[in-house]
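Title: Prediction job returns without error message
Component: structure pipeline
Severity: low
Priority: P3
Assignee: unassigned

Description:
Job completed but the reporter wants confirmation the result is attached to the right record. Sequence as submitted:
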Amino acid sequence: MSTKVGLWIDHRKAIIVAVTDKVEEMALIISAVEKQARRSLSSRHEGPYEPQQVPADDSRQRVYTGHLNIYYAAVIAGIRDAESIMIFGPGEAKGELKKRLEGLNLGGRIVSVETVDKMTDRQIAAKVRQRFAE
């Protein structure tokens, strides 16, 4: 039984639609990734203890990257067994995931990568059905 997967992804959530010969399943993966915080002028501390009171930028970047690694690992685990993978979404996450899949020798299974805006769950499922009905 061949499994075809459509994946709508951004940095906050991923919606996986798996289509087999007889069944269509949908799964949701929520990320723990928060937007990267920036230092604002209003929260800036003056004086000798400022570096201790505001986390360093590289520290925040490491935390952000760690959360992304966990999120992408969960997404890849959900689509690893698919024969064909369609990736679409609004931001950079789709390209980042494609690179990770290629690094795991799963890039040959990717049939398309498209930029689309935010979509409802029904719109996502309909797009995947339409793509794999061809």
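Comment from assignee: result matches the submitted record. The mean pLDDT is 84.
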